[in-house]
Amino acid sequence: MSETTAGGLRDQSGRYGPDWSASLASAPATELNDWLALAQAACDEADAIARSVFRRDLEISTKPDRTFVTQADTAIERAIRSRIQATYPDHGLVGEEYGTEAGDAATRWYIDPIDGTHNFIRGVPLFGTLLAVERDGELQAAIISAPALRERWWAQRGGGAWAQGADEPTPRRIRVSSVRALDDAQILYGSGHDIEASGRAPGFHALLGDVWRERGFGDFWGYALLAEGAAEAMIEVELSSWDAAAPTVLIEEAGGRVTDLDGRRAIDSGTFLATNGLLHEEVLARLRG
């Protein structure tokens, strides 16, 4: 029997895979297509805003939690909110910069205007806009757009996971890897210091010593590589629901599995483990030490 986790997602005892992901659809395909079309158009606008100021003079301020925000973060989120509200005035919004509106709505959008703000500030091209939409507490569709890389990844329940670069005439279907052995695995993570300092993954350092390769590809980039089969696990701490929502749909539709570091399928617990599914329990156990 499925239960609802604290993050609002259904916990189905470790099930994963495209067929299972498709079973989570709570909206017809036509509606999912419309949501994705809106998200694509929103990301076109977001990309243009981000590229207009990237590696140029930025207005940088500090929020109360001491994280940075730029004029691009706020402009992008305002533009996305305006577009969603104009099309779906009854939908709720959960965003990084402007908080939650209509939080009890049946359909809600998660908005991360610039994931990887520190990269953006320092001129590193690994940043992107993350959008995801949920219906009745279950995530349904998502997009990740990386304007400096000119690449996008998107997925919807039952529709598969897809990617497309600026030089690719048509989208390509993407899937997680089939690697089953830890010593053949490439493990990715956000900040190694933050993971160890959190105390949530005492086995992190030892795990890295036993895998084929490890790299600190943080933020959306690690999840995109995982969904494309270029890595077997991505580990992060200190992230919010808008950071985790879009990767959840992308990775589950690509055939992978996501949980927090307690093994719960949730996007708001502050920790996140995404894998190809085949190695999930082993990586989770190793992280727990």
Write the SSE topology:
Elements: E1 3-4, E2 10-11, H1 18-22, H2 29-53, E3 60-62, E4 68-70, H3 71-87, E5 92-95, E6 99-101, E7 107-115, H4 117-122, E8 128-135, E9 138-146, E10 151-156, E11 160-165, E12 172-174, E13 186-189, H5 192-198, H6 204-208, E14 213-215, H7 219-227, E15 233-237, H8 241-253, E16 257-259, E17 271-275, H9 280-288
Parallel strand pairs: 5-7, 13-14, 13-15
Antiparallel strand pairs: 1-2, 3-4, 5-6, 7-8, 8-9, 9-10, 10-11, 11-12, 15-17, 16-17
Task: Write structural notes for this entry.
By secondary structure, the protein is of the alpha+beta class. Helices cover 33% and strands 27% of the residues. The protein has helices at residues 18-22, 29-53, 71-87, 117-122, 192-198, 204-208, 219-227, 241-253, 280-288, and strands spanning 3-4, 10-11, 60-62, 68-70, 92-95, 99-101, 107-115, 128-135, 138-146, 151-156, 160-165, 172-174, 186-189, 213-215, 233-237, 257-259, 271-275. The strands form four sheets. The chain has an eight-stranded mixed sheet, with helices on both faces. The model is unreliable at 1-6 (pLDDT under 50).
Keywords:
289 residues, alpha+beta, 5-stranded mixed sheet, single chain
Q: Briefly, what is this?
A:
With 289 residues, the protein is of the alpha+beta class. It is built from nine helices and 17 strands.
Kindly report the average pLDDT value. Answer: 93
> Mind telling me the C-alpha Rg?
18 Å
Which parts are unreliable, with pLDDT below 50 for 5 consecutive residues or more?
1-6
Number of helices: 9
Number of strands: 17
Strand count, sense and barrel status of the largest sheet are:
8 strands, mixed
Structural class: alpha+beta
* Cα shape: globular
Q: Trace the largest sheet across and list its strands.
A: 6-5-7-8-9-10-11-12
Helical amount:
25-40%
Strand content: 25-35%
Output the helix-strand order. EEHHEEHEEEHEEEEEEHHEHEHEEH
Could you tell me how far the N terminus lies from the C terminus, measured between alpha carbons in angstroms? 29 Å
